[in-house]
Amino acid sequence: MPGCPPGMMAEPMVGIAKNRFCVLGRAGMDLYPDPPGTRIEDATSFVAALGGSSGNIAAGLARMGCEVSLLTRVSDDAVGRYTIAECNRYGIETGYVVLERSEARNTLALSETRTEDTQTVIYRNNAADFALTETDVAAVDWSSFGALVFTGTSLAMAPSRDATLAAIHAAKAAGVTVLFDVDYRAYSWASLDEASQICSKAAKLCDIVIGNDDEFGVLAGGYDKGRAYADALVDGRNAIAVYKMGAEGSVTIAPDESFQTGIFPVEAIKPTGAGDAFMAGFCSGLALHFGLRDCVLRGSAAAAIVVSRVGCAPAMPTQTELTDFIAPETTTS
């Protein structure tokens, strides 16, 4: 692949070079108290936006010039229709978004634009995206995609859990690169032990696994075992792990190399959206044939941009904004 550093294993990237992504999982509505800085309980007005981890990643990919489709279920109501309309506005293809006609409802999140004592309230009871089925997955033309992206949220409950595992197998069979953002949310799971077992099972099937130190600790069954788990996940496999460490940057582990990168210092106005932005920036870099280190840096830059702006999906940078941001900047070590 053009731009790949010496020693980088190209095979996990072959599919992603098509620059056509299928993002599976949670999409819904975010509400932000307005003006920025307002606490939820003090708000008299809110700004609405596309939300949900998969919705945000898809929006980021679309804004960065990638072709992207969303695979999920949304409630057959005004909020579900809002979610589809927002996806279309970003240029996200919604042909694989299924209307859930039960009493299940879309995710709704209220999130503050504040850096201190930030509150986020997420309504996920009987969430529509958890109703995704293996039949929905079987309807996907996997040969048309280069990459499948999903987060741990989709594994937290059936039938979405089985549908996600089916999607991994179908994508791999079609030569599609599979990327997993662990994105552990304790409130979605019955127990930490269940999350550890299911997410670890999925991670071992994927080409690229991205998570922070806490999340790799979940995969390993103990926080102090997380880094060793990331190393073992790559050992003997043509796979990549990105082990994020917050302000300390990240360690990327590939079959023939590992390296540490820093973060881009910015004046943050909120802590949310960084993980979704990292995934979008990282994936778009792979699709554009950047080397692995540059892809990680683009992910870090996208995360820095998003925490300095209001919202998550609306805050995602374009490819031009990302390039312009990186050019004069240096990361912290």
Describe what this molecule looks like in 3D:
The protein is globular. The protein has helices at 53-63, 78-90, 134-138, 160-173, 192-203, 213-220, 226-234, 274-287, 292-307, 319-326; strands at residues 20-24, 28-33, 46-51, 67-75, 97-100, 108-111, 120-123, 147-151, 177-181, 208-212, 240-244, 250-254, 257-261. It has one domain: Ribokinase (UDP-N-acetylmuramoyl-L-alanine:D-glutamate ligase). The chain is 33% helix and 20% strand. β4, α2 and β5 (97-100) form a beta-alpha-beta unit. The protein is α/β, with parallel strands linked by helices. The model is unreliable at 1-10 (pLDDT under 50).
Q: State the major sheet.
A: 9 strands, mixed
Quick one: how many beta strands?
Answer: 13
Radius of gyration: 18 Å
CATH fold field value: UDP-N-acetylmuramoyl-L-alanine:D-glutamate ligase
The CATH superfamily name is Ribokinase
Low-confidence runs? 1-10
- What's the shape? globular
Name the structural class: alpha/beta
Tally of DSSP helical segments: 10
Termini separation comes to: 28 Å
Look at the structure and give the CATH class. Alpha Beta
Give the count of structural domains: 1
Percentage of residues in strands: 15-25%
Task: Examine the secondary-structure arrangement and name the CATH architecture.
Answer: 3-Layer(aba) Sandwich
Order of H and E elements:
EEEHEHEEEHEHEHEHHEEEHHH
Give the mean pLDDT. Answer: 93
